[in-house]
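call fold target=GH18 domain-containing protein
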Amino acid sequence: MASDLKLLHSLYLVIVFVVFQTLTVSNSDVLPSPDYPEVVPTSPAILSLPEPSKSQLRSHPYVRPPKPGIRAAYWPSYSSLPASAIETSYFTHIYYAFLVPSPTTYALNVTSDDLIRIPEFIHALRSKTPRVKTLLSIGGGGSNSTLFSIIAGSRAERGKFIKSTIDVARKYGFDGVDLDWEFPADDVDMANLAVLYKEWRRGLVSESLTSRKPRLLLTSAVHFAAGFFHDEPRSYPAREMSKYLDWVSPMCFDYHGSWDNFTGLHSALNDPNSNISTVYGIGSWIKSGIPPNKLVMGLPVYGRTWKLQDPKVNGVGAPAVGVGPGDEGTLVYYKIIEFNKKNHAVVAFDSNAVSFYSNAGDSWIGYEDVPSIRLKVRFARSLGLGGYFFWALGQDYRWAISGEGRYLILTLI
């Protein structure tokens, strides 16, 4: 355990050397309420960070020439943003979210709404320039985890499920399929998940040879860390994931929320007091054996909110007595901008977590803004990750966050 912590600490030091060498905000910087194009931190800070060793420089891919990355986003089928309004120049891949399996047949359940929305989605994106790849995402946070456990645990049910995903993807013209199982409950589920990935990939290859069409992509959204503890400890089947998936998408958000009685930054890059952070999570995936270029890091386009116990005690970790503005403690980015402006909120940047937070009265919001997204994308590039994805389309403000990611990828190339 001590050696693991030492390894992760060394990884973190190398990361911060690259990511924060141009960082110019201290923890105490307080900024006025944002009004776009962006809030730009201006106060200088001197960071005392050690130089990386020669062996560290040789072992980390940020010293290699960068390559174009994946810039993906999920489009919820219930989104108020029409598929025709998606600005594809900011993305390379768009996920349709979500379809779920039938609890009786284990085939995908294409609802009456999906019968309308999927063709609209595919037609709209095919008509746009530049072209993007489309993936059919299956599951989601509100889906039945037990149902996926049943499917993964039976050869017959796996076969029905896999065939259905291929049939639906081909019928509507998707370029790939994506699994978002939140979350396998134990090591038995994880072992069965490994078999599901293996058989799924075989099915995709076989179908490609038979149809003489390009193989459908196979990806998976996963917990932010490769191993985690909820009711009991469990670890993802990293070897099989590396072998059978085109890429793995750690969801680097929802570290804190309405389940906490204190404020928190729900997509913190680093947390000096715990391993609930993106640095730890991505480090754990790399340590598990997933190549960095197969990791596509998740970024949120929404914040988490709380009601402060005492408006005068309003920093990160302040006591809270419930949720703040938004839907059950969740507020999408464009509404955060509106809230901050309307309520003359005080906005602060936490340079350790590389995240923003704001408060007005007893309302407190932790979220990402353009400068923090900029640094998190640089973090992904510094490790040679495959790219990033956003949850979700329809939550941005005039494409400010989406555009920032595209700008950084292109300029770093």
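return ok
The chain has eleven helices and 17 strands. Residues 1-67, 407-413 have pLDDT under 50 and may be disordered.
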